[in-house]
Each structure stands twice: as structure tokens, then as C-alpha cells.
Design brief:
Distance between the termini: 41 Å
CATH class of one domain: Alpha Beta
Strand content: 25-35%
Shape: globular
Largest sheet: 6 strands, mixed
CATH topology of one domain: Rossmann fold
Radius of gyration: 19 Å
Number of strands: 12
Structural class: alpha/beta
Amino acid sequence: MPNQAVKAVEIEHLSVSYGQSPALRDITLSVNQGEYIGIIGPNGGGKSTLMKSILGLIHPEQGSVKIFGKPVSEVRGMAGYVPQFALFDKRFPITVQDAVLTGRIHRSRLFLHRYSTADREKADELLEIVGMLNLKNRQIGELSGGEFQKMLIARALATEPQILLLDEPTASVDAKSRDQIFSLLEKLNHSMTILLVTHDLLAVSSQVKQLACLNRELVYHGEPELNEHIVNTLYGCPVDLIAHGVPHRVLKGHNGEDCC
């Protein structure tokens, strides 16, 4: 018998509500180890809630989430998280290296602790990977949007995760930084599973291997090729997709040709 793919994330019949407002309804989704999956959908469609459920930050009203076969409550450090850029206060007086080092805190059993030489070497290694080692002593408030986002990715990698979750990592960056971030994620995917929440349909078409369309319910999960029916169901109305000067494949035409 052929070997079955290892499931990095298994979500079964997951439902989450905030008070009387349903955020997710009966979501069943699995992500294989080494996968690179894009998650798209309208604002309020439950994308961030799904991320928080995978991280064990939200208790579902029903259903389950497992990481490599174990309940999320029993798994620590296997998933790194890059939250939305807007959630961070850039005025906080901390250097880039120190910000990345905060990703190592969970490794200490002491409430008051000191970073080890190994911790600092790891932080420098990660900053080199994201192309920011030369900025390690800079205050985070002096960073551009793209630099700040790459710092957050390095911080998430400091836990040495097997899964990397990112919530809109290119929402506040320019085109050059966006391309750098997607190039970085492509390289990281060689050694880890990636789940990417995004509104960037070019990323969906040219980067990810799988696509999940979410609007409180799972509308679609499969190859990163959308058709008009899926997009209209996902957003609740007809949607025109336009791209300028970038190779892409988003919508599949009726005659089998790609269209936008």
C-alpha cells in the first residue's frame, strides 16, 4: 500500500462563534506536511479566526483541530505565527534583534530570564535569512513596512516551527517588498508547511500550491485555479479580477484558457 501523506493540520467540523455571531461553520480541512496553502475570502469571513483556532487561541463550540495528529492543546512551538502588521505598535522602544529574540522566550522555564549566546546567534541567523542582519541594532520604529514584516517573519521562525501561519503579510508593503516576502516564503516552504491568509490574488495564482476559499464556510479547497462560480459564491456578488503586467492564472475561462 502507498504511504499516506503526513497531515500537518487536520480540522474536522470546526464551528466558532463570537456571542451570537457565527464566525466559522462546520469547517473540515486538512493540510499535508510541506504544503503551501493560500486562504482567501472577504473581510469578516473567518480567516483570522481560523488561524487563531489552529494556534489554539480560540476554543471552538464544536469540532477539533490537530497538529501532526495531536490536539492543539498538547502541541507547543510547532507552529509559528505572523500576525497582521497593524496589530503592532512600532513606537515600542526595542531593536530589531531584541524583537526577534522575543520569539525565543517560550524556551525558558524562568519568569525572569536572560537570552543565551545561542539565542542571539539564532536571531542573527534568522535575520540573515530574511535579509535584515545589517539592521539588527535599528529601532523597530525606523523600519519600513516591508522591513517590519520581514522582522515579524524572523520572529515567528525563532520558535523553530514546522508550520508557519501568516495573516496578510503583504497588506502594508510596497510591490518590491511584496515580491521579496513571497520569494522568502517560497524558499521557506522547502523546509516547512505554510498557511497564508491573503487578499493578494496574484499570490494565490503564482505562489501557493493549494487554495482554500473561506466565507464562514469552506467554499472551495483545491488547486489554485478559480472559476467565476467559486469567486461569486465566495464574495456573494459578481467580482472582476484585474492584473497589470504580472503573469498570473486566477480564473479559468470557459474554453479552458486562463483569464482575469
